Every structure is written in structure tokens, then in C-alpha cells.
């Protein structure tokens, strides 16, 4: 190892121009106290080593990683499959249910438990219409009531739609329901009934009688038994096997399509 002799340049007969300056220091420090320069050199080595370690990454990024290793972030857990109904979804009853489409030709039913004041039900209504346009006679749409207690207009609207059905049949029910969602918040039941050509006086009397209150409640009870707790509650059912799959909430068309295609 080379020996370092700390002597002033004048004692070694070395021209002052041959001495290279490493850092600027206060005058007189290098010549009078050579150990100061040694200390600075060692400090530079230590700091440089530390910076090198930091830049290279030889340290744990997360607490708990072994020395010299980078902690691994756990892979995300895949989403669970859609839940199956907690109870049986009631089979379609042509006499009691509101059916859009040809039940004799259809292979699959999309069953909706809906609240006419629910903004998410309004959002999904065009999606159901798109389903019917896409699948034609292969799919039927079944509408069932599920008015939530905190929507004060939901139950009256449901009963008004039943009165439209009572006076004008299934076609009047669907046109009335479409109108409710198109103008959600207006609640002009008698106006809609008149536009559909229904007897305004009989329609008004029907609403006042509350004759369909129990029917609406029965729909809601059956939906609750099938696991519906919010709206829209949607099920895709194979009409042959009666096996149903839930599609929760106001899902986009693609989500319904995947469930419908799987049900065929």
C-alpha cells in the first residue's frame, strides 16, 4: 500500500502549479492540519456509499421486507362471481305478471323488481328496452313492483300502473310505465291515462280505491324472499330449467347480455 507523506509542497520541491485542488478550503487548513483533509475524504466515501445504496435500491420499499430484497405487493383478489338468489325466484305467472314479449317463443326471461321513483330504475329502463330490441322473441321482460318505503311516490305510481292495466290491458300497462320513467318526478297519472285513451273517471276511482295495494305488496314480498333488498333487482331466468341468475343494480347492457347469453 502506498504511504502518504503529509508535507507541504515546498518541502518536496514540487511546483505549486502541479498541485490539483480537490475542494476549496479556508486558507491555511490543508497545510497546517493534514488530518482534516483525511477526515473529509473518509466522509466523502461514506456519503457516496450511502447514496449509491439508496439509488440502486438495496433497501426495502415496504416495511417487513428482508434486507436486500424489495417487498412484494400482493396481487389483487379477483372479484367474486355474481351471487345466486337467496331464495327461489317466483316462476312467471301469465295471469298475474306483466310480460313484454312472447312467452310462448321465449327461452329466457329478464325479471325486474322495480321502484317507479328510483333513479337507478329510470337509468336501467332503456337498457331493458335495448334487450328486447336485441333478442326479439327469444327473451321476455317481466316487470314486478318493489316500491321502497322512502320513495313516497313509488307505491302510488305502482298502483296507478295497475289501474292502467285493469282498464286498458297489458299494452296500456307498459305504455303507462314507459311514460312514468320518461317523466319521472311529474306523477301526472290522470294525464297519462287520458293520453292512453283510458276512462279518466274510472281511472281516478281505481286509484282512490287502493284495490291494487295488496298486489303491489305481494310482488314486494316475493322479491324480498328471492333476495331483493334494493332496486332495480334483476334476474335472468332460463324458462326451461327455471334457474335464475342475479344481475345486481343498474348494470350496463353488456352485463345483462353476458348473463342472458349464458342462460340460453
Give the radius of gyration.
39 Å
The unreliable regions are 1-32, 49-74
Oligomer: single chain
The SSE order reads: HHEEHEHHHHEEH
By CATH, the superfamily of the domain at 98-263 comes out as Glutaredoxin
What's the architecture of the domain at 98-263 in CATH terms? 3-Layer(aba) Sandwich
Helix content bin: 40-55%
Number of helices: 8
Give the class from helix and strand content and strand pairing. Answer: alpha+beta
Biggest sheet, in brief? 5 strands, mixed
Shape: globular
CATH class of the domain at 98-263: Alpha Beta
Through-space gap between termini = 85 Å
Fold-level CATH name of the domain at 98-263: Glutaredoxin
In spatial order, strands of the major sheet run 1-3-2-4-5
Fraction in beta strands = 5-15%
By DSSP, the count of extended strands is: 5
User: What do the pLDDT scores average to?
Assistant: 80
Amino acid at each position: 500500500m502506498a504511504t502518504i507523506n503529509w508535507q507541504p509542497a515546498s518541502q518536496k520541491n514540487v511546483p505549486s502549479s502541479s498541485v490539483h485542488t480537490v475542494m476549496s478550503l479556508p486558507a491555511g487548513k490543508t497545510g497546517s492540519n493534514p488530518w482534516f483533509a483525511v477526515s473529509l475524504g473518509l466522509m466523502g466515501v461514506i456519503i457516496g456509499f450511502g447514496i449509491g445504496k439508496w439509488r440502486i435500491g438495496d433497501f426495502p420499499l415496504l416495511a417487513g421486507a428482508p434486507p436486500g430484497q424489495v417487498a412484494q405487493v400482493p396481487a389483487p383478489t379477483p372479484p367474486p362471481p355474481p351471487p345466486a338468489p337467496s331464495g327461489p325466484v317466483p316462476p312467471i305467472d301469465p295471469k298475474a305478471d306483466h310480460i313484454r314479449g312472447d312467452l310462448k317463443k321465449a327461452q329466457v326471461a329478464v325479471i325486474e323488481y322495480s321502484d317507479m321513483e328510483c333513479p337507478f330504475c329510470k337509468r336501467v329502463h332503456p337498457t331493458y328496452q335495448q334487450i328486447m330490441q336485441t333478442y326479439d322473441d327469444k327473451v321476455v321482460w317481466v316487470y314486478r313492483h318493489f316500491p321502497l318505503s322512502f320513495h313516497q311516490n313509488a307505491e302510488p305510481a305502482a298502483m296507478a300502473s295497475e289501474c292502467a292495466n285493469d282498464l286498458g290491458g297489458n299494452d296500456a300497462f307498459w305504455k303507462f310505465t314507459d311514460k312514468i320513467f320518461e317523466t319521472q318526478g311529474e306523477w301526472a297519472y290522470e294525464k297519462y291515462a287520458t293520453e292512453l285513451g283510458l276512462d279518466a273517471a274510472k281511472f281516478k276511482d281505481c286509484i282512490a280505491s287502493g284495490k291494487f295495494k295488496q298486489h303491489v305488496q305481494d310482488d314486494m314480498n316475493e322479491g324480498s324472499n328471492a333476495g331483493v333488498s334494493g332496486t332495480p333487482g334483476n334476474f335472468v331466468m332460463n324458462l326451461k330449467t327455471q334457474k335464475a341468475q342475479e344481475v345486481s343494480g343498474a348494470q350496463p347492457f353488456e352485463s345483462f347480455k353476458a348473463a342472458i347469453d349464458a342462460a340460453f
